[in-house]
């Protein structure tokens, strides 16, 4: 709830005893617990008032649904009307990346990769160091959307 560990709890108890003293500490604990109980009762009565004002169509309304994460998890991910689980399971990132790597290295999809060799054979792939010919006068250079 509050992520208070055992050592922190002991330190808080010792601090409370030092601040309030052993004779006033029980009364302080009673006052704090009574205040928390009243706040909880007020919160529950406010929730019931809101539910009664909303009407019968909102009888199963939960205030936790107002949290965006809870709302999305409950209404989108659990029902899976969009088929998100099927899409997620049908996508294999590892095979997609290996296909891209094979295409970059100039290997065919059905050609097995050379064992122990990561460099492509000379002349098998595109020569990226070769200078491209300049366009003719009045001709626009090719547009590369990835470079922009």
UniProtKB/TrEMBL annotation:
One GO term describing the cellular component: TAT protein transport complex
Residue stretches spanning the membrane: 6-25
Bilayer topology term: Single-pass membrane protein
GO molecular function: protein transmembrane transporter activity
Self-association state and partner proteins as the record states: The Tat system comprises two distinct complexes: a TatABC complex, containing multiple copies of TatA, TatB and TatC subunits, and a separate TatA complex, containing only TatA subunits. Substrates initially bind to the TatABC complex, which probably triggers association of the separate TatA complex to form the active translocon.
InterPro entries: TatA/B/E, TatB
Similarity annotation: Belongs to the TatB family.
HAMAP family on file: TatB
Protein name, UniProt field: Sec-independent protein translocase protein TatB
């Amino acid at each position: 709830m509050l992520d208070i560990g055992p050592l922190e709890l002991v330190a808080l108890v010792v601090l409370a005893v030092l601040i309030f003293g052993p004779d006033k500490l029980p009364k302080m604990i009673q006052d704090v617990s009574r205040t928390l109980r009243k706040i909880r009762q007020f919160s529950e009565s406010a929730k019931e008032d809101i539910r009664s004002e909303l009407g019968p169509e909102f009888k199963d309304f939960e205030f936790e649904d107002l949290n965006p994460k809870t709302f999305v998890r409950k209404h989108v991910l659990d029902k899976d009307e969009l088929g998100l689980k099927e899409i997620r399971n049908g996508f294999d990132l590892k095979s997609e990346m290996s296909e891209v790597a094979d295409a970059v290295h100039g290997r065919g999809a059905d050609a097995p990769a050379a064992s122990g060799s990561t460099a492509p054979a000379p002349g098998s792939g595109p020569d990226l160091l070769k200078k491209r010919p300049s366009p003719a006068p009045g001709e626009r250079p090719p547009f590369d959307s990835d470079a922009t």
